[in-house]
Task: structure prediction
Amino acid sequence: MKNPYKVILKSLGLPYKTILGESSAKTVKGESIGYLTGIVYLVPDETICPLAKLAGCFEGCLNSAGRGAFNSVQLARQSKTDFFYQNQKAFLLSLCADIWTIQNRAINLGLTPLVRPNGTSDIPYENLPVIDGKNIFQLFPDVQFYDYTKHPSRNLDGKTFGNYDLTYSFSAITPKPISIKGLTNRHNSRVAVVFQKQADIPDTFRSWDVVDGDNTDVRHIEPKNVVVALYAKGKAKKDNSGFVQIKGVHYA
Result:
C-alpha cells in the first residue's frame, strides 16, 4: 500500500523528508512493554521553544544529551528545523507520512504506536492544520501522542480525540506551590522534574509523590498529579539555573 501522505506530497510538488526517528534507550525500553515510539528532534530556539530561555533550560536541553552530542546528529536536526521554517506544509505532510509508516509498522509488529512530536521543541501542533483544517492528532485518532511542555495553559479542547498527553515541565519559572501553574490545566496535570543525580531523587517533591520517569518514556499511562523524576544528562549535569534540581540547594 502506498503511503497516502507521500502521494499528496508528490501531487503538490512538495519534497518529502524523514522527520520521525532517532530512537533512544528509553524508547527502546518502551518496546518491552508494547510500544513502538517515534520522536521528532529539532534544534531548539526561541521560536519553536519560546519559553526555554526564560525557563533556563537552553543549556541543559535534551538536545545535547546522548546521541545529540554528536555533530552529525546536530546537522540532521538542523536540517529538519530549517525544513520546518522554510516549507512548513511539506514538513507537516512528511511528519504525517512518517506517522502513517510507524502506525503500520507497529501493527505488523504487534505493538502500539506512540509519537512524541516535540523531542527537543515545544511547538503547539494542535494549532497547525495539515489537511482540511485537521491537525496531526485529528488525522491519526488511533495513534497516541505525548509531549512535555513549558506552556501551562495549552488548551486542547476540540483539537484532539483525547490522544495527546501533555506533561508539564518543571523549570526555574515554575512558582511555588507547583499546583498553581500547570496542574490547573486538565490537559497537563503531571509534572516532570529533572534532578542532578539519579541517587538524589526523593520520594516526594513539594508534597507530590515521585515516580521514576527514566525507566521508559511512556508518559500517558502514568497517573496525574505526580512528579515524574528524570535525572540530568549531557550539559544539564552542570546546570545551575534552577531547571535542574540540586539536593541541598533546591530541596532538602
Remarks:
- Residues 4-245 form one domain.
- The chain has a mean pLDDT of 86.
- The chain has one domain: 4-245.
